[in-house]
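Re: your question about Photosystem I assembly protein Ycf3

S., sorry for the slow reply, the queue was backed up all week. Below is exactly what I fed in.
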Amino acid sequence: MPRSQRNDNFIDKTFTVIADILLKVLPTSNREKQAFSYYRDGMSAQSEGEYAEALQNYYQAMRLETDAYDRSYILYNIGLIHTSNGEHGRALEYYYQALERNALLFQALNNIAVIYHYRGEQAIENDEAEISKILFDKAADYWKEAIRLAPTNYIEAVNWLKITNRE
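Result:
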């Protein structure tokens, strides 16, 4: 049984009913409907911490989805899972792919910045000052772009940029 039919809480059930109605009403192909169904099931599994199941659904959605904008969100969510699993290199690959399809995906820009910032802090702990500066500068570049696209979303990043004279 698809995950979308197993939702237990009211909000998930409501979303599922509305999404099912929209899928029936909107003029979309069966392939697009199937892709959205896999994407929706992936989001549901991801929200419950079932990352392996979520990835399976996202990969199925990627096989079916042809729209670059929609693919960007699938790739972004795959990146989120890899970030959650501590696989930052793989996460970066997916965030970059998402941005190739949707340059306005400010959440991906922010997550890339967070990873570079984290790596910069790791470099400091390993007494690699020059590497940390490069990584912090990369983080700053991505945060600046994310802030340009979503000025009120990343106040902590704005403050970090000011404190570190990277604005």
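The radius of gyration is 18 Å. The chain has a mean pLDDT of 90.

Happy to talk it through on Thursday.
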